[in-house]
Design goal:
Strand content of chain B: under 5%
Largest sheet of chain B: none
Oligomer: heterodimer
Helix content of chain A: 55-70%
Low-confidence stretches of chain B: 169-179, 192-208
Order of helices and strands of chain B: HHHHHHHHHH
Shape of chain A: globular
CATH architecture of the largest domain in chain B: Up-down Bundle
Structural class of chain A: mainly alpha
Number of helices of chain A: 15
Mean pLDDT of chain B: 74
Number of strands of chain A: 2
Shape of chain B: extended
CATH topology of the largest domain in chain B: Four Helix Bundle (Hemerythrin (Met), subunit A)
Helix content of chain B: 55-70%
Radius of gyration of chain B: 27 Å
Structural class of chain B: mainly alpha
Chain lengths: ~400, ~270
Amino acid sequence: MIVEWVQGQAQLVFSCLLALVVVGVMLLGVAYSILAERWIAAWVQDRRGPNRAGFFRLFGSFHFWGLGQPIADGGKFFLKEDIIPDNVDKPLFILGPATIFIVALVGFAVIPWGGQVQIGDALLNVQVANPDIGLLYVLGVGSLGVYGVVLGGYASNNKYSFFGGIRATAQMLSYEIPMGLAILVVVLATGQLRLEEIVLSQMGDGDVWNVVRHPLACFLLVVTLFAETSRTPFDMPEAEQELVGGFHTEYSSMKFALFFLAEYAHMITGSAFLMVLFFGGWHIPFVPGLQPGDTAWWAMLLKMLVMAGKIALMMVFYIWVRWTLPRLRFDQLMRLAWKGLVPLGLGLIAFALGMLYIGKPQAWVWTLVGNVVILATMLGITALIPSRVTGRQYDMPELPPRTSAPASIGGP
Amino acid sequence: MSSVTVAMLYMLFALGGVAVYLALPGGQRSARIAGLIFGLSAIAGFAVLAAGHLFGEDVSAVYFCILAAVAIFGAGKVITHPKPVYSALYFVLVVLAVAFLMVMQEAEFLGIALIIVYAGAILVTYVFVIMLAQQSGASAVDGRAREPLLAVLVGFVTMAAVVSQAGHLPGNSTAMVDAPDAALARLAVADGIPAVDEPGEADDEPLGGSNTAQVGFLLFSQYVVALEIAGLLLLLALIGAVALVMKRVPRDVPVAPAPPLGEIGKEVPPF
């Protein structure tokens, strides 16, 4: 009887299995992204990264390039003392890290991992859930992410944490708007809210990936993803030099680890979302086994591998940018969102609506030309508007020419 | 509904009103505990009253009961909790529970839109403002309710009136659910768009039978005037906000003359 029930509920059972596998792989992926972050940081700064922690020294002095490091880090987090300071708001102090991690994990439910797979005589979606409103689900869950940061900052009862929380709220609310606009461009172009259908719309006959159709919208989404995950150059909420640690100053042990891991989980979710919307998800053109008609189990595994590879590439990009670009100042960050990205997004929306009106929302040659025109117009307008000078002002006195060694400052 | 049921319904409303009045911030601790007990018994009374109507239907009634209880509990906490931040967070809980109720009624678009708009934007702004306003600790005014008796009376009398006019417990409210569907089908047939109940045809149209398409279709056919008015109102609010915060700064503000390079910091006394 149970067997029959299971056969009737094939999609449900498959979804549950997939959810278990995806969450497990993602937690491991989060741990190893941190190792990747440290490796790439070391490589950018021309030094050696973590390379000591191996697995039990099974093979003499061979350390497996430090692959045991995330496990050692995890053990360290568990063994540290978990301090809850006296004058914090205790329920909110605990709710903060829990919220941010839950939100980072549930966003994964609608990401399509590998098209469809034939098991027995059932054709199953390789996706935990495929609701009508998949794209809105990702947006809605993502918009809840700010609560973790805000609660952490407020409950800590510490002015540095508080400023971190305030900055995070303003930043995330501002960058959600251009993010929504960029996503709306894709919705207008494909006429779909189901993520699986959006992937499929990028691989038909004569179709291209959305990044070719709407490169500016893709750029917009990449920038806003950086801001939503509070990664450099947008890591104002935890700017170390000004705010100690920002919203997580008062946290220690596993509670800090949850904040730390949630950042990487958010990055992975955001990367997966970007790949689905703009880079064809599990698809690579002209490669057999990666086409929508391939439903064998090995094709499913291949598609999942391709998807994971694309996410890994985006993660490397995230990390690379972090160790290359300096941090923006807060007024620059706000100006970029409201005076740069929002007008650009509105222009792109108007253009996508126009393409829809003439009935060619997917004609990629025309959308590409339109994107170039929009970019040129934006750059032209930017060049014409006089920008406010925020650094050293032109009416400040000139620096005197340095003739001799500067006088020593301060007394003995 | 029989007159006995209606009478019991009104009694439960009265009980709920007393519970909220007792639980509002500012009262004695024992009164608030009594309010909690009254409130819980009112919710239990509703559950018993609704049980006969709900559990004949299907399993989803259980989810409905749980989510409804969470929503009512959260809503009670929103107005009775003494700390404003907690009130805002319980509001988030209410929004989430109601959104899931909507998803269960196959109104996915409305549910997610509720989460994005309320939980994701409006309530974050509330929390933001509360945090900014309370840097020096909670003020004494937050600790007690204003005009608790009048508020409770107006709130619960209105709710009782609305519920008695709706006249249906959730299990047998088919008449209310059918009406928009019929209107939609009529409109759809008139415009040549496949109706929801024909999945074979709906698949051909992009967004054919989906919930979002139905909402969009209704918004831009039956309710287009309301939509336009709402858009206009939002635009006016936007312009008003900009006009309120705009401060005209003269271009040539006198800049304090910068001291010569060696003098910078000289006037600051040393430690």
